[in-house]
Amino acid sequence: MHLWNPDEPSTPRGSIVPFSTCLEERLREACEELAISWDRCAGHTELLALCEHLGLEIKEEVLLSLNGDGVMNVQEFVSRAVNLNKPPTPSASTPYRQLKRHHSTQPFDEGGRRIATSSALTSTIGMRLFSTLDDGTGFTPAEYILDSWTEEGIENGSEILQALNFDLDGKLSLGDLTMALENELLVTKNGIHQAALASFKAELRHLLEQVDREFREKEKIRSDLEKAEKLKNQLATEVDEHHSAIEHTNNLKLRKLEQDHKEKLAAARSELMQEIDRLQQQVGLQREELEREMKKTREDESFLRDHLSISVKENRRLEMELLDSTEKLVDAQSQITKLQTSLDNMMKEKFGDLDLGSADFILQEERFKQLRNGYEAQCRELQDRIDELQSELQEFHSLGRVHQPCNKPLSEELESKSPGMESDPGIGSEEVQPFSLSLEAEMMLERLKEQHFQEMEELRNQLESKITDVDQMVEKQRATHEGQKAAVALQHQQEVQALRDEIASVQSQAQELQSQLDQVELERDCLVKKLAEEREELENLQEEEVGNLRQQLLETHTYAADLEDQLKNLEAQLSETDVNCHSQVDELQKQHAMEMKKLEERHVKLSEARLEEGINKLQEEKAELEKRLLDDFEREKEVLRQSHEVQLKAKLEEAKMMFDKEQDEFVQKLTEQWGKERAQLDEQNNESLQVLLEEEMLRLVKEQEQKDAKLRKQWEAERAQLQQQHEDAVLQRLLEERMQLQEQFQQKEKKLKEEWERERLQLEEDYEGMLDDRLNEERKKLETEKEEVEKKLKNVMTEEMARLKESHRDAVKELTTKHSEERNTLSSMLDKLRDDFAQERSEVCRLAEENLLLGQKMTALKEEDLKEAKEELTQTLEHLKHERTTARRVAETFQKQIEELHLQRQQLKDENGKLSEKSSHDIAEMEDLHQQLAELKEEKENREVFPAEDKNKVTKFDSIESQLSHLLEERKSVDKETQSLRSQLAKAQERVKAVDETSLAVNHQSARLKADVRVLQKERDSLKHEVAVLHKRLQNANDKHHILEMALHSSGLQNQSKKRLKDELSRLMEQEQVLLRQENEQLQAEMRTIKGDLVQSREKVRHLDATVLSLKQQKQPNHLSLVKALEVENAALKQELEAQKEQNKSCEAGQGHTTSLESLQQENEALKDQMAHLSSQLLESFQAHLVGLLPPSPHRIPRGQHRGEDPDNMQGAMPEQRAAHADSYRRIGGL
Asked: Mean pLDDT in the chain?
């Protein structure tokens, strides 16, 4: 900063005064050098830099005047800074003011220092006045000088300049002006002025010398600072090299650890994949076996359904034949009624003259009445029987529609219920990029290892749970299949019984029809004989009448001559009466034709209207049914879709929740670990850890997306499959209902046609009766007219007799033709009835053959059921053998895992030695760092004399000290890692002990399994014997049943006794089948109890493992004692390894003993269950982090107890069943 000058024009007078042009130009130049705009605002840092450049001191008042954003106008800021730096203005009357004015007018250099100007007055000082008015040329106008003097209170400036010989119009030389003023001061012989001038000069000289000295010291300090910077840079490079060397060694160690971790992960993954492949193979084999069983059962179901469909078709065909026979009977009855009416008319016409009260006529009428009553009673019985058969058929159809097929194969069901194995999310890819980590990153790798092991164990647990779920599902499907099988067998037996009853009823009806046909043939023969006799009598009567007529003709010829005149007169009257009669007959015929047409049209219209109404109703019903079915289909489809979507959404949400939880926990753990390490590691390590964290996050996100995609695909596939199945089922239902509707429509059309034909026949019969009545009335009228004409025309008998003869001949001819036609129709009807009877006989024979076939099929089905039960037992035995082999494999894998544990223990020892070497190396490095720190402290003490600018270096030294403390903390973490490794060694020892105890438990339980095998062998032999006995009894029962059926067919027993015997036989057969089912159910219940015991034992083992884990979590290991006893434990571990080898040899000997058991025939059914149980127990104990010994549990129940109770139950149940069988066979023998 420049000194204060009261005479300077820019000096304020109690307020802010604008800058002068020269000062403003200098300030502008300084702003341009610092790249700051003079007219605009600037920030805090830029303003501070400008003040440092100008040499101004800033006070807090100026800083407080800044805006909230820390921005202020540059011009305003400089004016305030300059004004605040100036002292208050003193009076201008002192000589000090003049000297100060001279001093203040010295120009500034770029660093803010004044530049001494040369003058004639003082060459040493080199001072020049009016530097503020100098524009760089050394000249200034006289007006500016006068203005400055007037501002300073000198009013006679022009006179002073003129006294000093300067021109007032042009520019003045500032150097000349200063020299003139100094000369004037020297010329004035005032001692005070000269003393003041000399003292000011001396003071100024002294100040300049101090400034030069300060400048030299500043340059020296600058050089010292440069040397210190060089030393600091050298130290920093050395520290960086040291850190790089440490990081390089750490990277090498981490790469080794990563390589080891990768190898271990690869080994674990290969073992996991082998186990998964083995389990998948086992599941595939079980699935194939179950699919074979399901295929077999479905083939049996299809076979039974085919039989049912065949029986239903046969029943329908029988129904149709019965309907046809009823229709034929109705036609025959209508024809018989027609014949009866025609015979009555003929009898009336022919025998009207005879005595109706004669005995022969009365007997004939009574005979006809009896025949008619008998036919009517038979027709009623047949109609009742037809109605009963129709109701039974409807019930049978309703029962046949209940069982719906199951078209879904087992493979699809298992695939939908058991999702595929997913990739292990915990195990990363093998090709992990190497990254640089510190020593504490090893802790994270160990944690990741533990997490991978936990996830592997969770996968194994999930596989075991899925296998148990599949077994339970298979058992449930077997139970449901057996229930369905029993229901189908019962239904089939009921249907067979119903068919037998129907066959018996049809046979009885056929016999009744046969007897009726025989009676009809006898009656026809009688009628033919009677007709022949009547014909002969009619011919005799005709001959007699012809003789009498001839005699009468001869008599009338004589009488005709007399009556010719009268005839001529009467011919006119006869012609008139003939015309009238012809006209009346024509009118009657026309009326008859019109009425017939009207009746036919009315009947046709009525029938068409009824048909149309029926068709419309059927169409409406059909449309309504189709609409209802479509609505039901859509509703069921929507409900199924919604339920499936809800289930899938729930599953997806559960899976997402689980995955989100796992992901959050995993991310939280990772973030905590990385947060701890981030606080301790350098920037490079932070970047590498951040990259690793991002890679882990990306991998987790990718796995989540893959799982979501799999779940979506699975959901879409299941939804498409369900939709396809539902659509197929609904289409099948629609087709079946359409077929039913078509059949109903056809039946209704048939019924309508039959009703129409019946009504038409009835109308024709009514019309014929009406015509007969009218004809009879007309005949009566004509006869009365004839009698009147005969009374009037007694003379015209001859011609009338001739006409009568001719009419009689015509009538006889007509009667003979009618009689021959009726005889032909009767013969054709009898032929048809004979053909129908022959067909019915053939059908009855065929039905009897089918009945025999059905009986044979029933026996075959029963034998097949027994065979299936045997096959199921053999399959279960084979399955148990397979499970024992799998248990042996698991034991081998367990031994391999024990060997791997020993290897891991050795690796841990090696790692412990490496870590001890590493800790020694770190201790040496720490000692070096301590030495460096001591040297730095000494330098710091030496440098404390330096000014405040060297404090940055001290802070750097403090950072080095913090790094040293960080290294100390790393050493502590390494010590903790060594302690954790020792604890892991102790845990490995405990695991080895636990494995030894489990191997001893396996040897103990193998002895128990042998006893169980023997017990089950005895039980199986007893079951085989009982099955053979039951098979023989069934064969005998079937033979007796066949013999009884043949006897019933051959015997002439009545219908009630036949039905009673058949009902008794069916009841006995049902009792036999129920007993067989009960025995099968008992066997299956025993199998279920065995499997339930297995599940309970597995649950108990899991419970024990959980308790062991909880106890071990409560126990906190004493690390100090473990550290002290580490060497002792290493020696003990060697001894335990030798003991473990001997125990493994003993286990192999025990396994050789178990292999000797395989040579026995089917002796190891129960041993499989026990070995599977032990394998699952060993796997669960191994998967529980291989920690803790299994304590002896009081809840564990030996397998022998469960097995010991089953044979007693079976032996207790078998005598009751045998007694029931004996009672049933006694009843059959009594029948």
From this structure: 69
> Domain map of the chain by residue range?
21-226, 277-350+358-792, 868-913+983-1230
| Vertex 51 angle, CA 48 and 52, to 5° | 90
pLDDT tens-digit series, residues 613-653: 777 777 777 777 777 777 777 777 778 777 777 777 777 77
Of 415-429, 752-766, 990-1004, 1028-1042, the poorest mean pLDDT is in: 415-429
Beta partners for residue 114, in sequence order: 108
pLDDT score, position 252: 92
3-state secondary structure 1184-1231: CCCCCCCCCCCCCCCHHHHHHHHHHHHHHHHHHHHHHHHHHHHHHHHC
R_g (Cα) of the chain, nearest Å: 66
State pTM to two decimals.
0.19
Nearest to 1183 by CA among 1098, 1126, 1123: 1098
| CA separation for the pair 290, 474 (Å, rounded) | 8
Please give the structure tokens belonging to residue 383.
């109609």
Model confidence band, residue 1137 (pLDDT cutoffs 50, 70, 90): low
Nearest to 866 by CA among 1013, 715, 1073, 712: 1073
Q: Which two tokens stand for residue 667?
A: 């991310």
Q: Provide CB contacts within 8 A for 638, sequence distance 6+.
A: none
> What is the phi-psi region of residue 408: left when phi exceeds 0, alpha when psi lies from -120 to 50, beta otherwise?
beta
Residue 173 C-alpha from the chain's centroid: 105
Instruction: Report the percent of the chain where pLDDT is more than 90.
Output: 0
> Cβ–Cβ contacts within 10 Å for residue 881, how many?
16
Tokens of 527: 């009628």
Q: Do the Cβ atoms of 412 and 721 come closer than 8 Å?
A: yes
Contacts of 420 (CB under 8 A, 6+ apart): none
Q: Is the pLDDT of residue 1217 over 60?
A: no
CB half-sphere exposure, 1175, CA atoms < 13 A: 19
* DSSP one-letter string for 301-343: HHHHHHHHHHHHHHHHHHHHHHHHHHHHHHHHHHHHHHHHHHH
pLDDT in tens, 938-996: 766 665 554 455 556 656 666 766 766 777 777 677 777 777 777 777 776 677 677 66
SS3 assignment, position 117: coil
pLDDT at 942: 66
548-576 pLDDT tens trace: 777 766 776 666 566 667 667 766 766 67
Task: Tell me the pairing of strands 72-73 and 171-173.
Answer: unpaired
Gap between the Cα atoms of 364 and 531, Å rounded: 13
Give the phi and the psi of residue 440 in degrees, each rounded to 5: -75, -10
Residues 6+ apart with CB under 8 A from 546: 805
Averaged pLDDT, 341-349: 75
Which residues lie closer than 8 Å to 655 by C-beta, 6 or more apart?
A: 707, 711
Residue 320 to residue 389: CA distance in whole angstroms: 11
Give me 832's structure tokens: 């048809």
Would you say 425 and 703 are in contact if contact means Cβ atoms under 8 Å apart? Answer: yes
The C-alpha angle 563, 565, 568, rounded to 5 degrees, equals 110
Backbone angles phi, psi at 1065, to 5 degrees: -65, -45
Calculate mean pLDDT across residues 1167-1189.
Answer: 55
Q: Which residue has the higher pLDDT, 1135 or 632?
A: 632
Q: What is the DSSP code string of 401-468?
A: TTPPP----HHHHHHHHSPPPPP-SSS--S-PPP----TTHHHHHHHHHHHHHHHHHHHHHHHHHHHH
Report the alpha-carbon distance of residue 92 to residue 123 in Å, rounded.
Answer: 27
Determine the Cα–Cα distance for residues 1052 and 1050; give it in Å rounded to an integer. Answer: 7
Q: Quote the CA–CA distance of 830 and 842 in Å, as a whole number.
A: 18
